[in-house]
Amino acid sequence: MGSSSLPHAQRTAAVKREADLHHLILSNIDQVNENIRLLRLQVSPTKLFRPGQWLDVYLPGIRQPGGFTVTSTPNDAQWSDGKPGYLELAIQKSPNNPPAAWLWRPEAEILASGVIVRVGGSFVWPPPNVNPATIMRLVLVAGGVGINPLISILSHIHQHPPLFMHQISFLYTTRFPQSKEPSSVLFLDRLCRIFGDWDGHHTLSLFLTQCSEAEKQELAMKMGADSARQETVRGRISHRDLLNALGPVEEREGTVVYICGVPNMTDDFVSLLRGAEGMEENRVLCEKWW
User: Is 18 exposed, middle or buried, given 0-12, 13-18 or 19+ CB atoms closer than 10 A?
Assistant: First the structure.
């Protein structure tokens, strides 16, 4: 998120924002792959945001703010053992997007720079207008960098597991990495750690595009995936995959779905799932960042 034909401020003009501005320091940069950087912004000990929200990011010399989703959790923003908290952002390389281009400048030019942020967005956990105690099954559907808000939500739930939730299914579709290494797939290592901690009721399904069956199998072996909790599939997420993830029709009143991906995928999946038997419209949430 953070790349679109319209500037972030115009796309999200009608979306609620917090009133406060926060002054942060760019404290760390990690390279995930040739197109994604993970940044950490050092924060003061305060509760800044809810899982799934984004930031207006004001950068030196750039008039319009950029819009970038927080990929860390509220817990991560708290000081711990004398170490400052942080907000994490995943920034896609976008030379035509001035804020993203600034954040892709050489590390030596931007590390320790001050930035100003404002929190916004309503694609959050827990879901608005749904009693969390009624959620028995959570389905998270991510396409490419659409994983950004969903990794924040999932990580928060991992840190604070709801006793009432029986099943979590995470469906993630992304291109096969050029490096052929799992570490080059955005947040795959984090997903594997989380699902490795959980029992077989919670499942991770990775859908890889632009690869051969042999390449898929090789990546799965490098992941060390537990077949009871994690599967690797060649191809895109299908309608059948989505409907299966909802659970039996008679149990779907307890299912909530979050979807974030490219426009066509998101629109198609939202339409399908909101119209699925047993589902209510307010239990299928999506983030439209374009």
Answer: middle
Q: What is the pLDDT of residue 64?
A: 93
Distance CA 141, CA 261 (A): 8
- pLDDT tens by residue, 227-253: 668 999 999 999 999 999 999 999 999
Does residue 49 sit in helix, strand or coil? coil
Alpha helices (H) along the chain: 8-11, 98-103, 107-110, 147-159, 188-197, 213-223, 239-245, 263-274
The structure tokens 């419209």 sit at: 281
Torsion 14-154-130-49 (CA) sign: negative
Determine the Cα–Cα distance for residues 52 and 54; give it in Å rounded to an integer: 7
Q: Do residues 281 and 128 make contact, with C-beta atoms less than 8 angstroms apart?
A: no
The predicted-structure confidence for 150-163, as pLDDT tens digits, reads as follows: 999 999 999 998 76
pTM for the whole structure? 0.94
Phi and psi at 136, nearest 5°, equal -100, -25
Q: 147-159 and 188-197 helices cross at what angle (nearest 10)?
A: 30
Tokens 């599939």: give the residue.
Answer: 233
- Output the DSSP codes for 113-160: -EEEEEEE-S--SSPTTS-GGG--EEEEEEEGGGHHHHHHHHHHHHHS
